[in-house]
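In response to the reviewer comment on reproducibility (Comment 2.3), we provide here a single inverse folding case reported in full, input and output, so that an independent group could reproduce the run without further information from us. The structure tokens appear first.
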């Protein structure tokens, strides 16, 4: 199987999104003590980034790519809402 131009475009899109997750992971891993308040901000930032990425998708983007972004945003929303229910977050 040889990758076509559209495949390389999809790879470029996904790799750009993954950079944000890598940055978030690195930020959360560099502290000696995890802080729930900073995790909340990181999750919110990732949600906003995904929301903007979904809006900016070209019309001809593969459905699998769109679904992956939407699913990732939904999963972050699930976790984000758990913060509000946590007795440890003030």
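Designed residues, in position order:
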């Amino acid at each position: 199987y040889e990758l076509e131009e559209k495949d390389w475009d999809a790879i470029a899109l996904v790799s750009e999104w993954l950079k944000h997750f890598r940055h978030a992971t690195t930020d959360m891993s560099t502290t000696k003590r995890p802080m729930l308040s900073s995790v909340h901000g990181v999750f919110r930032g990732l949600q906003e980034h995904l929301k903007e990425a979904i809006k900016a998708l070209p019309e001809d983007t593969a459905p699998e790519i769109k679904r992956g972004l939407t699913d990732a945003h939904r999963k972050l929303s699930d976790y984000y809402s758990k913060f509000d229910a946590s007795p440890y977050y003030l």
